Amino acid sequence: xxxxxxxxxxxxxxxxxxxxxxxxxxxxxxxxxxxxxxxxxxxxxxxxxxxxxxxxxxxxxxxxxxxxxxxxxxxxxxxxxxxxxxxxxxxxxxxxxxxxxxxxxxxxxxxxxxxxxxxxxxxxxxxxxxxxxxxxx
Length: 137
Description:
single chain; mainly beta; 13 strands
């Protein structure tokens, strides 16, 4: 009997965790460029609501983003320093996604021996990444 009950509890917990939404999106923001966060685990939920909060304020709380109620969410440089997450419901149960911390790219003056024109950021895995219409000379 103990084994059966343990199996039921294990099955329920696996099912619940497999329903959690996973959002993916580029955290680095460029001016005049929209980015999109999407649900990547291919589950169609009953409801969607994207939330944001200030990333660097300890007492900041998540607030719903007006109109962000689908499986995709478009964001841009105006949302710098915000952390976003998605809350979904499926069959009356709410699930909370992972978070994405949105960061502004840095501006001119990053290089000593080169001239940087435009916008970009440093990614430790890729090196220096340029936004569209930016250059290093």
